[in-house]
Amino acid sequence: MSASATLAATFLSDRISALQESQTIAMAKKSRELAAQGHNVINLSFGEPDFQTPQYIKDAAKRALDEGYTKYTPVPGYVELRQAIADKLRRENRLEYQCENIVVSTGAKQALANAVMSMVNPGEEVIVLAPYWVSYEEMVRLAEGVSVRVMGSLENDYKATAAQIEEAITPRTKLIMYSSPCNPTGAVFSREELADIAAVLARHPQVFAIADEIYEYINFEGEHVSLAEFDEIKDQVITVNGFSKGYAMTGWRVGYLAARKEIAGACEKMQSQITSGTCSIAQRAALAALEGGRSSADEMVTAYHRRRDLVLKLVKEIPGFKTPTPAGAFYVFPDVSAYFGKKAPQGETIENATDLAMFLLNDAHVAAVTGEAFGAPNCMRFSTAAADEKLREAFIRIKDSLEKLV
Ligand SMILES: Cc1ncc(COP(=O)(O)O)c(C=O)c1O
Questions:
Q1: Contacts for 26 with CB less than 8 Å, ≥ 6 apart
Q2: Pocket mutation for ligand 1, best pick of 23, 214, 275 (most atoms within 8 Å of C-beta)
Q3: Does the beta carbon of 46 sit less than 6 angstroms from any atom of ligand 1?
Q4: Domain 14-52+296-402 class?
Q5: CATH classification for the domain delimited by 71-292, as one of 3.40.1360.10, 3.40.50.1240, 3.90.1150.10, 3.40.640.10
Q6: Confidence at residue 268, expressed as pLDDT on a 0 to 100 scale
Q7: Which atom of ligand 1 is nearest to the CA of 242?
């Protein structure tokens, strides 16, 4: 421990000391440093659309200011926005919810954190389907819960099975957490797979599930199925969604959850003491986004689909990279373990995916994220949310750099 870290340990809480810094953010920071030194860094580490927010949504935000939407907002969100969300859930997801079931938050991230903090007691177990989104385990840690990883196999597109989940359930299990489409793998659960998971929940009515559907619109192949569609377990499901990915609104910070009213009420209480209601202007913009339907999202999805195909082709040309075909989201997540144990020209050995990510950043000037961050240490995540030429150039550089490893 450095001297300043030793000093900090005397006054910072154990809670914050135990918390990991987000590795995606750490990688972005390093690539900015290299770029500042004049290197042409291609950053494929971001989990962010490279598109601008559609103009009609920006216009609604400007109108909101002119119309005086500048005051505190109701803690669970404007009633018009919650009603529009309830309508969307009914129309697109076959889910019946009222305003009282919906809490609008500062990003889907806050909705997830609200749910975990409202549900998990110290020592209770949360089954996290791995590979998982970076923040799940840290949220569980903050709630003093115990995360239990259930790992999907490469052969099953990294999707954990219902049988694996059931095997991991103990008397201490409180929650299951997953994203579909999945960040980082792009895997999408089918109706049959979710029906099997729903059957497990029906056999364990004390267990709840957080279904993170933030990538719902970015789905190239199948239909989107919500776990809450299975009526007998609907009350056990907390559905999380938001505007960041589908509407390219990452900076606006609007997400939401839908759940039975006791859980929604608990999340509202949590939020009332931490942040209060989400930004007034961003909420009005989110309302306009929903009123505009999904056509702007569909245009972006066409580009993500084309880039996914392009990157898959480029990845397949790299010896040793093994990747399933992502059905959604905007990432590819190859197994890169064929390079472990090899030596770089400077003599250092690539022990793991973190070393490989660092080697590629320094040698190819391409930033990606180690699979360690997602509970999959053999893998690396590359974002496909970048221009086609950048993606082509990145994978040419990666291939050249990897050829230097012996
Ligand atoms: C799976 C998943 N859930 C939630 C979030 C958070 O979304 P928001 O930006 O709305 O907080 C992200 C963002 O990267 C994500 O990938």
A1: none
A2: 214
A3: no
A4: alpha beta
A5: 3.40.640.10
A6: 98
A7: 10
